[in-house]
């Protein structure tokens, strides 16, 4: 392929380091920048499913991901007294189930990927892109500190609210889902178990408690709302009379240093590349957490983008191949079941009762069938094989 090619990756979450890992295998020089001062430690349980599980296997990381698993045994829907309405055990396959077989904290997956790429890429924390000037022989990036550098390709993997995407692509279409979500963690108590417990209250509210492997419980509060990130006061007011463990989770809000929130919205970028700049992960196609596919899409997208960049001399051809392979997979992931996520957030007491009746019915069918009912479209992609493009002598992860 001639001279060593150099990529700048903006974002050190899941997609960015995965792209770094694969491009190093293909002989690229890799620089990764992250505006945060260090790896972000906040985050909830994430799934690695289907084609993404195969990507992890090809990175020889499946055992590591399993070893850092949350220990979640499955999902239970409960009533105000904590009694189980329906239970769905964790999957024993690559795809099925509300709880995936490979369930890991987002921060621990990010840390694992950083560990495996720290020696292979130039990581720069506390750095961000100011502007990108596309030129015939490269992209000149001016960083926020005023310094400049030339790259062959720039990949934006900064997430749903990427500032760099807006600078380069302008405003991209988004689809709001009408639900706001807040995430944080609380101390684990003796009565907590290793099941994901989901509770619905009238008013379109849910309380979700999930186990982790560090002695805490991950809280997710969601409710029907307009745009905007919910803060502690709004959350306390909205959930004051919700029942079940509302008092416990509200009481922990004031001391929650890992609280963050979002209004769920999908990103529907009509094009993923312009010039030498390409979008990756949520920055290009956020499917939202309710899809169950965010992390899997990030892993698969990084794998495909790296392979296409390695397979083509010209970046335009690589970007075209990337979209050709990946866009149908992304579009399937973004096609949420009808009524999602509002069906899971009934506003009336009657609506909550109807939902619980439906859950009891689903919970009464054979486990294999119920697991398929919860399965996102994680297997609907035959991964291309780019192994012939790897550079001889590339290090094997330990």
What does this structure look like?
The chain has 398 residues and is of the alpha/beta class. The chain is built from 12 helices and 18 strands. The chain has a domain at 6-71 and 102-174 and 266-338: 3-Layer(bba) Sandwich (FAD/NAD(P)-binding domain). 31% of the residues lie in helices and 26% in strands. The strands form 4 sheets. A 7-stranded mixed beta sheet has the order 5-4-13-14-15-12-16, with helices on both faces. A 6-stranded mixed beta sheet has the order 7-2-1-11-18-17, with helices on both faces. β17 (273-274) and β18 (277-279) form a beta hairpin. α1 (15-25) packs parallel to α9, α2 packs across α9 (294-311) and α9 packs antiparallel against α10 (315-334). The mean pLDDT is 89.
């Amino acid at each position: 392929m001639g001279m060593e090619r150099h990529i700048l990756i903006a974002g050190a979450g899941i997609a960015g380091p995965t792209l770094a890992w694969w491009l190093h295998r293909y002989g690229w020089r890799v620089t990764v920048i992250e505006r945060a001062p260090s790896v972000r430690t906040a985050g909830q349980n994430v799934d690695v499913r289907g084609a993404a599980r195969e990507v992890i296997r090809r990175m020889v990381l499946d055992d590591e991901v399993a070893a850092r698993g949350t220990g979640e045994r499955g999902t239970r829907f409960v009533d105000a007294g904590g009694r189980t309405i329906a239970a769905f055990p964790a999957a024993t396959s690559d795809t099925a189930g509300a709880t995936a077989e490979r369930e890991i904290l987002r921060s621990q997956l990010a840390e694992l990927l950083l560990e495996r790429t720290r020696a292979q890429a130039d990581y720069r924390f506390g750095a961000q892109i100011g502007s990108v000037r596309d030129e015939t022989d490269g992209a000149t990036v001016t960083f926020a500190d005023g310094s400049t550098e030339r790259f062959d390709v720039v990949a934006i993997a900064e997430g749903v609210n990427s500032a760099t995407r807006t600078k380069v692509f302008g405003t991209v279409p988004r689809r709001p889902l009408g639900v706001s979500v807040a995430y944080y963690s609380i101390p684990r108590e003796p009565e907590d178990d290793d099941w994901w417990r989901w509770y619905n209250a009238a008013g379109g509210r849910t309380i979700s408690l999930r186990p982790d492997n560090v002695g805490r419980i991950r809280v997710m509060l969601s409710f029907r709302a307009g745009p905007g990130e919910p803060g502690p006061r709004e959350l306390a007011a909205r959930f004051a009379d919700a029942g079940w463990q509302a008092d416990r989770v509200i009481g922990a809000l004031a001391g929650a240093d890992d609280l963050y929130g979002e209004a769920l919205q999908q990103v529907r970028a009509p094009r993923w590349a312009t010039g030498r700049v390409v979008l990756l992960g949520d920055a290009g196609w956020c499917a939202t957490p309710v899809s169950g596919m965010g992390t899997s899409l990030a892993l698969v997208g990084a794998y495909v983008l790296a392979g296409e960049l390695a397979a083509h001399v010209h970046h335009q051809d690589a970007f075209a191949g990337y979209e050709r392979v990946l866009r149908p997979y992304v579009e399937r992931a973004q096609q949420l079941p009808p009524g999602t996520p509002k069906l899971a957030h009934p506003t009336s007491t009657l609506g909550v009762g109807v939902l619980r009746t439906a859950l009891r019915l689903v919970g009464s069918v054979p486990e294999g069938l119920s697991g398929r009912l919860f399965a996102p479209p994680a297997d609907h992609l035959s991964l291309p094989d780019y192994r012939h493009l790897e550079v001889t002598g590339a290090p094997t992860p330990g």
